[in-house]
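quick one: protoporphyrin IX containing FE bound model?
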Amino acid sequence: MPDFDPLSPSMISDPFSTYAKLRESEPVFWSERLGSWVLTRYEDCRSVLSNTDIFASDWRRAGFDEVGPVASMQELDPPEHVPIRRLFTTAFRARDLTAIGRRALALTESIVAGLAPGAAFDFTADVARPVALDAVCALLGIDPPPAHTFAPLADALVRGMDAGLLPEVLEPAMAARAELNDLIAGWFAGSGDGGLLAQVLAGADAIDVSQEAVWNSARVLFLAGFSTTVGAAANAVLALLHDPEAQQRMRDPELLESGVDELMRYDGPVQGTSRACVEDVTIGEVGVRRGQLVLPLFAAANRDPQRFPRPDDLVLDRRPNQHLALGWGPHSCSGAMLARIVLRALIRGLWRGSAWLRLAGDPERVPRATLRYPDRLPVVHTETWSPYP
Ligand code: HEM
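yep, here:
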């Protein structure tokens, strides 16, 4: 039984060699530390994510106690999941996502234009965070809170996802959740401008979905939308910093769509998700019992050579590319379209003209198991490419 520790320094700096070893030696294994079966093969992960009859997001179906007073869409399964998910996806479709993309591009370009020539900047804090925050707020139809006050809240909540491994992150996460709830209360009260939030609130009355479930789902959407987009953008830029050919090729507008998806496959921020087993079942050679947890590792599945030829290379025109970075099945990312649009805008806006981007210092990572990305990514624009600061 491998001693899998997602928070060990080697996993934080490079989880992929461990994922590869696990996939080869024990693709489905029990982790005492995580209290879960861990899955690293693409086919196993995808079939778990597709099968909500057996692998529940609503853990009560597998015999667990109530998770909280009222769940969000992330903790419900069909049939209860269907109306609330539809409420949000219908509201999504009604928003002009292309306009949000144009806005994200303009904001990225203006941040980059405001930099002193040759000045180093932190891509994560100075570019990805304000652009992602602005895009999610434009979607919801609310005024963005200042990035510097909102980012610590989001960070505390994201670290809270690792509370099973690190109990000390739970309390700050609960405090941040209460603060975010206050912010959301203000948005709900003032969401009259026709944004997604206003539409969702209006639609919730017509179907059998509680205001609390809508509220919790809005919080999930806000956090999921902000932190994951920041993480995906930072990982994408870091990958391009290490690969000058890919950096050059990403300037080609024809490659932007497939390139952004490939960057998400190569190093997506969400490492995995949990499901609870509703009945005894076999995954590969392993018997999983009702009431046990399974953890499909998206990031490991996305490097599975059985699915992706040359899995450790960036193949910017990879097609097909059915990666799991945005999940799969009934709970796949409902903001996927917006995520792609904002990532494309960030990458287009960052590489202006002929300038190259290179590292201006070591990336820094807060150790996190669930969401992995550089929290600080010092970079600088230069006229020629060089890998070193
Ligand atoms: C590149 C950025 C993003 C990444 C990598 C990402 C990733 C994911 C993943 C992996 C899941 C599935 C989780 C699971 O199966 O347990 C998910 C679900 C979700 N995402 Fe995203 N996401 C991103 C951006 C967004 C955005 C921009 C929004 C909305 C503004 C959003 C809203 C959601 C919601 C509401 C769910 C839950 C869906 C459900 O349970 O039915 N995400 N996301």
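The domain at 9-382 is CATH 1.10.630.10 (Cytochrome p450).
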